[in-house]
Amino acid sequence: MSETAKLILEGKEYEFPVIEGSEQEKAIDISKLRGQTGHITIDPGFKNTGSTTSAITYLDGEEGILRYRGYAIEDLAEKADFLAVAYLLIYGELPNQTEYDNFVSKITRHTMVNEDMRKIFDGFPVNAHPMGVMSSLVSAMSGFYPESYSKNDMDNIDVHIMRLMAKFPTLATWCYKKSQGHPINYPQNKLDYCSNFLHMMFALPVEEYEVNPVVSKALNSLLILHADHEQNCSTSTVRLVGSSQANLYSSISAGISALWGPLHGGANQAVIEMLEAIKEDGGGVQKYLDKAKDKNDPFRLMGFGHRVYKNFDPRARIIKKSADEVLEALGIDDPVLDIARGLEEAALNDEYFIQRKLYPNVDFYSGIIYRALGIPVNMFTVMFAIGRLPGWIAQWLELRESGQAIGRPRQIYTGETAREFVEMSKRK
Ligand code: SDX
């Protein structure tokens, strides 16, 4: 007999099934709650509410575990190639050599962008934030591929997956080149995914550009570490938009917008801005810890805390280690890294952070590496999006293939009760 949960409401007893996942996580299935009891649940921020079952990513917030399709993030970040991890997330298995070569070849052949997209792009002001540009351009892609919003859009969904994976980095580099007043670079089919991105970002028509293998390897690892994270804010957004059967491009565009927020992916930009402010302010961290603890001060320690991890974010551990290696390999001495380490040590020994189980998250150290790779601060969240793209796609596919009903949460109304209309002449 499987476990059930009993609920007593207004003297009546109700029983609801308990479901258990493959990692022994348990949930009370309340899909019949309103029909049986006339009540709904309410859980602002969904801190206790599951929106779906999923077979893609597993997190254990207490143990600091992160696995993509069962593979540990530590192994994937160290041993895998980003496109192989993208294949794993989207199709469920690590690709064999033939599958990998076909996947890479298809993506390579879609890296160019329709030249008419340049007309849309050229309309943006030079200082437009790249996340707003990327959300717009990805949504605009549906206009170039109208079959993506036909009623049988799932029949040829693979080509749209290839187009997104291939063109997203190309479009991202347009934002950077425009901000520098430099001509954009076309993709080079002879380069691997990360090297192609770096070439499009940093090559100039006046000299040869050699991709530094240390930089390309660090980027590959960073993209893997950001590739998926179960039902986070932006992924839940992609799923919710996808649940209305909106096309893949518009669903991903919505996810980019959600990721932009400083409480989510925008935190990696906010961390560096915070560390720079501390450096400008003399480098003392205690003042900022006190501000973060002061309920009357809106300041938060950016890059710290997490909805799920109540232990170290395993990605933060890997990125922190990689930061040392990358900066040493590139011969960079970044004082901001020392400030970050000092801030982390002080916070991890402070009762406020200990009591609330606030640890560094994926965003705390990532910006230090991006900066060492030459990525400008306002492109940090775009880098997060490049990494998260295969995860968004995988989650969107899982939702569409599940046939799940359109997402439509309920509410408890707390406004005015019924009242008579008041003519203008009688209004106060
Ligand atoms: C990402 O969900 C994901 O998986 C996201 C992500 C992914 O891969 O998709 O992991 C990526 O978004 C990482 C998080 C990046 N954001 C930041 O670094 C911004 C700073 N962190 C916080 O704003 C906060 O920790 C959140 C948003 C990450 C989580 O917020 P929660 O779960 O809603 O927790 P909360 O705000 O209720 O905080 C609990 C307590 C509160 O204090 P009390 O009301 O109990 O007194 O902890 C405090 C908060 O004030 N707190 C912080 C804090 N984070 C939480 N206090 C100071 N500094 C912080 N950073």
Structure description:
Helices cover 50% and strands 7% of the residues. The protein contains 18 helices and 6 strands. The strands form 2 sheets. It has a 3-stranded antiparallel β-sheet with strand order 1-2-3. Strands 4-5-6 form a 3-stranded antiparallel β-sheet. Helix 3 packs parallel to helix 18. The longest helix is centred in the middle third of the chain and has 24 residues. The termini are far apart. It binds s-citryldethia Coenzyme A. S-citryldethia Coenzyme A (SDX) binds next to helix 17.
Bound molecules: s-citryldethia Coenzyme A
- The amount of helix comes to 40-55%
Question: What Rg do the Cα atoms give?
Answer: 24 Å
Let me know the largest β-sheet.
3 strands, antiparallel
The topology string of helices and strands comes to EEEHEEEHHHHHHHHHHHHHHHHH
In DSSP terms (H or I, runs of 4 or more residues), the helix count works out at: 18
